Amino acid sequence: MVATRDSDHQQTFTVTHRGNHYNIRNFLQKYHPGGFKWVKPYEGKDITKSMEKYHHSKNAYYILREYKKGGRDSSKNDSDEDLESMVDWSKPMVSQVGALGTKYQEWVMLPVDRKLILFGNPILENLTKTPLYMVPLFWIPVLTCFFAYGWKELNWSLDLYSCLHMSLSTLIGVVMSTLVEYAFHRWIFHSVPSGENKMMIYIHFFIHGLHHKAPFDPRTTVIPPVATTVLAYLFYLLYSVFLARSVVFFVMTGMIMGYITYELTHYYMHFGAPNENSYFHYLKRIHNQHHFNHHDKVFGVSNMFWDTIFNSLVELKKLHMPVKW
């Protein structure tokens, strides 16, 4: 459920920082880790000392540059260099990231609020952008087929053994999907490419770097079906080596269920406004920590189970009033 508030009709929310004026309304509406209520008292005021007092991250100062009235703040100072001068956001990014070299890793983890263009070719560009509705539209029929094939292997039976077989195998698939979600995010998506290896920079940028660079672009949040289809097929082949056919089909059913849940949850963490004190409210707060403060922590999205197991969870601050977006 998307929260509403009286100020939603406003087009500006101006603050001052180091003598410059910024309209941060777009950021507050859904993205600010502290939510709207925490920042409301600072409307029209100088936030320089407050940002220092509350130890805002480098990412916070960097994203603030986006909202300077009159255009992005590209000034240089000792604590916060603007790296966006190294690229041209009006041109395809795929032809530029490789040249960033050793600066790539720093640049890609500093967020901007912009639409990302990957390719100049519109056909290739559209293949990299996936609307959220494509996830259930594409994967629910596939999930249904896997379940039907598995049930067929059990001769369409609904006796106790068959029901337990279906339930446990599907549950194993769901649990496996959460482990894959965590493992891929931590050890593949966040692997650090060498500044001398352009190919690794391109790969990292395509699979995850683009999402950290442009986390507010809904077109970069959902993984394209082509990529996930290849992964699903590889998992199917792997399971087929070790498991009975009926088990394979139900495990794949559970994995796809888990994957759909992951995509919907991830999208909601970025663009939704969960009710205060709900589970999704907690997930959004902690996912914001991953994007803005702790890139090396909090790799789960749909749940925090594996972060707890592998000691990559961060502790959220106890607040005297709840966050509201």
What does this structure look like?
This protein has 325 residues and is mostly helical. The protein folds into two domains: 6-88, Roll (Flavocytochrome B2, Chain A, domain 1); 122-271, no CATH class. Helices cover 51% and strands 2% of the residues. It contains 13 helices and two strands, in the order ββααααααααααααα. It has a two-stranded antiparallel ribbon with strand order 1-2. It is globular. The model is unreliable at 1-9 (pLDDT under 50). Its EC number is 1.-.-.-. Its main location: endoplasmic reticulum. Heme binds at residues 32, 56. Plays an essential role in the synthesis of galactosphingolipids of the myelin sheath. Responsible for the synthesis of sphingolipids and glycosphingolipids involved in the formation of epidermal lamellar bodies critical for skin permeability barrier. It is a multi-pass membrane protein.
Give the overall silhouette: globular
Number of domains: 2
Q: Helix amount, in percent?
A: 40-55%
Which stretches are poorly predicted, pLDDT < 50 over at least 5 residues? 1-9
Query: Gap between N and C termini, in Å?
Result: 11 Å
Number of helical segments?
A: 13
Query: What is the assembly state of the chains in this entry?
Result: single chain
Radius of gyration: 22 Å
Q: Which strand order do you get reading across the main beta sheet?
A: 1-2
| Helix-strand sequence | EEHHHHHHHHHHHHH
Structural class: mainly alpha
